[in-house]
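Notes from hallway chat w/ T.B., transcribed later so I don't forget. T.B. wanted the structure written out for a chain they're using in a teaching module, and asked if we could keep both sequence and structure tokens in one place. Agreed to drop them here.
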Amino acid sequence: QVQLVESGGGLVQAGGSLRLSCAASGRTDSIYSMAWFRRAPGNERERVCDITWGGTPTYYAGSVKGRFTISRDNAENTVYLRMNGLKLEDTAVYYCAARARVSMIYDNWGQGTQVTVSS
């Protein structure tokens, strides 16, 4: 089992930046990849970006490409999401998720952190 704890959400003006963190603990040796998802009010959950446990980004949603950057600090077992040029439509609860090597899905989830972008 992998435990994930997100932090770094908050209120920011449109055009501003935030950096989210996701600290992984427990069976981190079982992780294949990690991802950030988000869910805005009234919307389905959306996968934002992925990164391999080795630190290679593998996916960005079109809506965030060029503005968001996912990265990993190997020493700290922490994955980051740097969000620049934030837009009103980026407002959502952001979740960190981990996929185990033996799994085809993201089945370890953090509690989520709220990001609110104001005009």
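Follow-up for T.B.: The first strand starts at residue 2 and ends at 7. Might be a good example for the class.
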